[in-house]
Fold this sequence. Notes:
Residues 1-44 form the F-box domain. By secondary structure, this protein is mainly β. It has helices spanning 7-14, 19-25, 30-37, 39-50, 258-261, 416-434, and strands at residues 55-62, 67-74, 85-86, 100-105, 108-112, 124-128, 133-136, 151-160, 165-176, 179-190, 195-198, 207-208, 216-218, 221-230, 236-245, 251-255, 268-273, 276-282, 290-296, 305-312, 317-323, 329-333, 337-341, 348-354, 361-365, 376-377.
Amino acid sequence: MSEYLPQDIVMKILSRLPPKSLIKFRCVSKSWYLMISTPYFINLHTQHALLSPKMMLLRRYSKLLQTDVYSVHAAAASEFDYAGIQIEYPFRDRVRFYYRIVGCFNGVVCLLDDQFGQPDAVAIQLWNPAIRRKLTLPPPPSSVNEDPSMSMVALGFGFNAERSDYKVVRISYLYGDCEYLLPPRVEVYALSSGRWHTVEGEIPHNCVVEYFWSQVFTHGNVHWVAYKTLGKKNSKRENLIMSFDMIREVFDEMLLPEPLENEVPLNLGALDLGGVLAVVQYDERVCGMRCSIWAMRVYGDVGSWSRDYAISLGCGIGRVLGAKQNGDVLLATKAGALVAYSGVDGKCEDLCISGTKDSFYAGTYNESLALLNEGDVARHRLPSDSESESGSESGIEYQSSIEDEDEDGEDCLGDVEKSEFRMQGSMSQYLSVFFRRPFV
C-alpha cells in the first residue's frame, strides 16, 4: 500500500490505529519501523488518541488475591463497565503490597515504591501498559545525601505540551528542629533529556502535607494541597493550592475557599473532578463519615470555588477518587467497596469491585506510544481464567509466599489494611509535632 500512497497519507492512516497494532506493523518493513518510531509520529498518534473516547484506569489491592489489580474501563458508558479489561502489570512481587500512583497522563503511569515506608532505594517508574514499556528513573542527585527518616518527598507528574515531553517534579523537605526546613529542594526529570536538573528561582516556603501527597495535573500545571505557617512558633497556618508550571518550571499559589483555609491539612486532598481542579474535605481522614467536594469552576479564578457535593455515608468514607462523565462521584468506602455517589438523589451504587480503601486509584486513560524509544520491555503473565478472587471468576495468579512469615511471625505479605492505617497515623503524629498540638 505504501508504494501507491504518499508517506504523509500512510502516516495519517497509521496514526489512527491502536498501539498494539502499530507495534506489530513495525515488522512490516524497515521504513515502517523507522516511521512509527519517530517522535513526530508518536506525538501525532497521541494527539489522535486524545480525541478518542475516554477510558478509565482503575487500580485496587485485592485482599483475597493478595496482589494489586489494574483494569481499564469505558468511561463514556451510561452504566459502569464492571468487567473492564485487566492489563498486564510488570511490578508485581517487587514491592510490599502496592505502589503509590503519582499520576497518569497520555497513557503513561508514574509509580513510586514508598507507599509503606521508604526502602533503601526509592524507585520512580514510568510505565506504558498499552505497549508494555517501563522506565526506571535514575536517582536524583539530592537523594544521595538524604536520610529517608529525616525527609519528606512530594512528587508531581505531568506533560510539557510545547515540547511533547513528560516530566516528574520532586520536592524534597528536610526535617530539623521539629519542623521541615524551608524552602525545599526542587528537581525535575525530563524524559527528553533522561536527566534530573535543579529548579532555580523562587521556591515557595510551603509544605505539602496531604495524605500521600497526591497531585492533580491540569491546564499544564501540577497542583498539590499545601500549607504555610504564619506567626511565631508555627502558631498559625494557612492552607492553599501550590502549583508548578511544567513548561516554565515556576511555582504559583492559589487561595482556597474560606472554609478550607484553616482546616486540618490532613483532611484535605487535591482531586481531578472530570478535568476540573477540585479539593475534597473530609470530616476525618482516617475514619470519616462525611466529606465535601469544592470545585474551581473557572481555572485560576479563586472566586469560582463552589461546594458541588456534600457526601455522607453511614458505612464510612475511605477515599474519594474522582467523577464519572455523568457527574457521579467515584469513591471507596471504609470497608473497601467501590461505589458511585449521585449528587442528584444522594444515592450510592455499588459497582461490585472491592479492595482495600486506600489502594484504589481511578484516572483518565488513553492508549499511546509514549516510552516506545525509552526504557525496557515490561511483561507479566495475564490473569488466568481459572483463577479468581471468589474461586469462579477471572483473577490473577501470583507467585508470592503467602505461607512465608517475616521476623515477627506475620505473613510475608502482612495485613495491608493495618499498614494503611499505620501510615495515616504516622502522618497525624508528624503534623501534631509540627504544630505543637494534636489534630482532633
